[in-house]
Amino acid sequence: MKDVSDTVLSELDYLPKTLGRKDYKIGVIGVGRIAQRRLIPCYMHAGFAVAAVADIRREAVEATCRRYSIERGYTDHRPLLEQDDIDIVDICTNTFPRKQLTLDAIAAGKHVNSEKPFARSYSDAKEIVEAAEKAGVHLAVHQPTRWYYPCAIARDLIRKGFLGQVFYIECRMHGNQDKVYYEDPVTRWHADLTDHLYVEWGAHHYDLCRWFAGGETPSAVFAYGTKRGNEHFKSDMALASTCTYDSGIVAALSLNQASRCPQVCNSPAGMNFRIEGTEGTAAGDMVTDLAFESRLHGGVKGSWDFRQPLPEEEDPFNYMWWPTVRDGHIWPMTELINEINGEREARCSGRDNLLTVATYLAAMASGEQGRPVSPREIISRSCDSGSHLSESKGLGD
Do 165 and 251 touch, CB atoms closer than 8 A? Predict the structure, then answer.
């Protein structure tokens, strides 16, 4: 097989590109650890203008403004929304206050980039999407995993036909948040969630399966979680799941955040995937590396390791790690800005993400009921069955 590692990357869509204007002023609501150590420095690297921040904790506001030379900081989100020059609001809180914050931003006429998981109920997600559409503002959901280099490249290899027709997708995760998150006071609140694995992590992995399936939503999801009684978390912290698709694709997910020895034969970031097509295979760690082989084009292959360290001045907290993480967090805002500029609907739009919400909620319902559940069942509780599926299918292209 011919090794095309050095040539094929130039043909693939994996680096964020802003098309047209990008000087929109951004206000960030919620400036905790993720916003301070990852989101805001990512945006500044991309040349986006973070002009104001808000958080109920004064010390977080002051620290953020001081570190990034941001002049406007508020301990209430409403004064930020009253700023006429703020075009986009990035809401980087947990899900519990986020619905009202998002609705307030929409009512103020701001475009919104929402942190994931978008919502813990389909009705909440649908209400937000419909409010944005009624107000005429643009809404995106921050799904960075889609655009970590291995996942973005794999998706474009699929789109360009290198793998033929995809028929099998596998996503695996092994970690120990049951211990690590519990021991960290900043993240310990997750331990009280009964849906942590299905929603907080499902928003990544079920979304990634949709991404690799070209935006298609599963026709049925089966999931079964387990616990042994010695976990700190109330949620099941290990689960196995399958998704079936009308196109014939099947996906298998193994999500485990209760491993006592997670580094045993594990990938660098603890999350890996494999995609099988009729003409080729792509596999790798979701964050750090990728390899593929294809029988097409006379037989080609490629492999990459993306663990090139960032300079200390760009990543002073050592929290972005590599360009693959940095650019993954830049992509959703880039998609939103390109949509505002009239280029195309963001591939992580709020309407598209309704289908991800329906999928991870179907998995949770399956775990509770012990049977396969269709995302259409989740959707039908709020609207006519299948209406959003037909509108949004294929948005991953």
Answer: no
Q: List b or e across 33-64, with b for residues whose CB sees 16 or more CB atoms inside 10 angstroms.
A: ebbbbbbbbbbebbebebbbbbbeeeebbeeb
* Structural domains of the chain, ranges and CATH numbers in brackets: 13-145 (3.40.50.720), 147-307+348-392 (3.30.360.10)
In the chain, the percentage of residues whose pLDDT exceeds 70 is 96
248 contacts 169 by C-beta, under 8 angstroms: no
Q: Is the pLDDT of residue 228 over 90?
A: no
What strands, in cross-sheet order, belong to the sheet with 25-29?
72-74, 49-54, 25-29, 88-91, 111-115, 139-142
Query: Mean pLDDT of all residues in the chain?
Result: 94
Mean pLDDT of 115-141: 98
Strand partners, 256: 174, 238
Rounded CA gap, 2 and 285, in Å?
A: 23
What separation in angstroms does the CA of 288 have from each of 116, 199, 272, 305?
A: 21, 24, 9, 6
Q: Is 0.85 topped by the overall pTM?
A: yes
Question: For residues 184 and 193, what is the distance between their CA atoms, to the nearest angstrom?
Answer: 15
pLDDT band at 389 (very low <50, low <70, confident <90, very high): very low
